[in-house]
Structure formats: C-alpha cells, structure tokens
Amino acid sequence: MKKFKLFYIVIAVFLTLALAITGCQQETEPDPQPDPPVEDPVEDPQDEDEEGKLKDGEYSVELDPDERGWRGILTMVVEGGEITEATFDELNEDDESKLQDEDYIKRWEEASNVDALAAIEDYQEELIETQNPEEINVVSGATSSHTKFVELAKKALEEAE
C-alpha cells in the first residue's frame, strides 16, 4: 500500500512541476512562418522588347499591408533607361522597418536558417543586373519577401514605361 501511495505522490509532484514549468514560460511573438513556395514565373517575350525604354527618374511604390501588418515598399532609380538602384523594405503600421528590427531579423533567421538581409540585398542586386523582376531567383526562407519584391518591381516598371 505504501508503494502505491509513494507512486501517486511522485506522479502528482511530476505533473505539478511539468504544468508549472509550462505555464511560466515567457510569451513571445510567433516565429515568422516559412513562406509558401513560389511557382516559377513564365517569361513574357514582350519584356525583352521593352528593355531600354524606361523613363529616367525615381519611382516609389508600395503594397497594402499583408496579414501580419507589413507593407512592402520599393524605391527604384532609372538612369539612361535602365534600373541603377533598387531599395526594398517592409514597414509596419508605425512605419518601423522590418529590416532594421534586430529581434525580428533574428527570429526570421532562426526559423528559416536564412540571412534575411542578404536575401533582400540579392533581390535588389538581381533586379539591377537582369532589369527584369521575373528573372530574380527565389531565396528559400524569404519567398514572401521575394513575392512582394517582384510585385513591387513590376509596378515600378509600369510607372517608368
């Protein structure tokens, strides 16, 4: 009888400790969820004909906020009919930059094992190199940013035509 009593006491103590530890964990923001896969875009032959027909200037475009409250923004500079600069970021409702939020970047990198800042820099550089948003390679773990970047680049190119 004493063995069963001791057994129940040990179980009760174990369950109490397990619940106490679980209940005392610090609340954190949910980790950024991995981005859904992006389908390979179909190349449009008209894009090749339109190269070099861009109007010089600075073009700024933005998207409506996504389900997490981040809205993508892109500033693109065209000189000599070609894209020479591209700057992408995402801002929250307080106009705070996602790319300058060290905690967010750290959680993003831990969740996806991707250098978020390097991925965005790659997107910007590839747009300048290719002059075509459809040719920008997707970085796994930063596909949502890729989708926004490509959509914004297309909008900016429409304005520059």
Word description of this protein:
The chain is α+β, with helices and mostly antiparallel strands and 161 residues long. The protein has a domain at 54-160: Sufe protein. Chain: A, CATH 3.90.1010.20. 44% of the residues lie in helices and 16% in strands. It contains five helices and three strands; from the N terminus they run ααβββααα. The chain has helices spanning 2-23, 45-49, 102-112, 116-130, 143-160, and strands at residues 57-62, 71-79, 82-91. It has a three-stranded antiparallel sheet with strand order 1-2-3.
Please name the defining characteristics of this protein.
single chain, 161 residues, alpha+beta, Sufe protein. Chain: A, 3-stranded antiparallel sheet, 5 helices, 44% helix
